[in-house]
Amino acid sequence: MATREHLFLLIIFVVFGLTFIVQSFYYVYFYLALMKKRPAGTPHKKEPVSVIICARNEEENLRVFLPSVLKQDYPDFEVIVVNDCSEDNTFEVLGSLIPEYPHLKVSTVQKDPKFTHNKKFAQFIGIKAATNEYLLFTDADCQPVSPDWISGMASHFSEKNDFVLGYGGFFRGKGLLNRYIRYDCITIAMQYLGMAIRGLPYMGVGRNLAYKKSVFFRNKGFSSHNYVISGDDDLFVNANASGRNTAVEYNHPSHTRSVPASGFRQWFRQKRRHLTTAKHYKPAHKILLMAEPSSRIIFYLTFAVLLSRLFLWQAVTAIFLLRMILQLAALAIASRRLNEKGLIAISLIFDIFSPLLNGTVYLANIFNKSGQDKWK
Q: Which of 136, 177, 181, 212 has the fewest CB within 10 Å, making it most exposed?
């Protein structure tokens, strides 16, 4: 019996070591790619830019955040707001801003009971209305952190670069949920920005994303995934971005901040909608995205088993601490690069439970399809 138990624990130890190797690969190769400060693009090149914002019943957010977009320090840009079937005072708010900001344009989609649509349709209307080749996207509940947001993102536009991936964080607030939302946001950013830096761009976030209008129409826009409720940002990037045509911009003045969910139910609903796109990624991307949280769960489980039996506990503890050092180092660097504060200590807890929580959301999508047919 002792020999059989020893063999079992030895196998567990091997699995533990293999998952440590997998985890180390992600931290060293992808997440620590943010270690090097990204240089700015070519600030002397000021190509005309069209900023596109889709809004449905966003009266208050537009009143608060749209002026910071309209007041950007950039010589040639227009802001197109697509008023998508709003039933509040969105139209009046936009109308009050047009006299002061002539570069603000409004496209209105009227509500039709015979025709329901997702955000992609509103996005398409905005892209069609844009007069410039270079498109920059954000949301109605987003605020650029500086007047140089457009400059930072646009500085990477070139004949070579079709896509520019930016960072869109959330406003800092009180409570555990706010900290988890910001932790979830920064860890996702470490992943998609790090993979893009390594030549494997797989997604962008609609809160801060840019691409060329010609690329959109040359690749038939959202036609290949128009039936998916979400994905106006990440699925288009996943299908068309590559290491050769994608730039990354995460200098502080180029960030945006968004209003986080105010309650767990709202966050859960938003997360469900976002995760509907994951199964449509390219197979290689799906494997890479699944391997990290899966290996993390196995790493923690095998650690618990080995430590409870005190099997090679010195080596097990050393490996666990080494992985924790890599985790904290990567998050500390990303926090500095992405200007996120107050997350490092709590990340030790979030790191254990986040793959389980995300797995729960993913399973909810599989077994319950209700509520996935609306973007607002």
A: 177
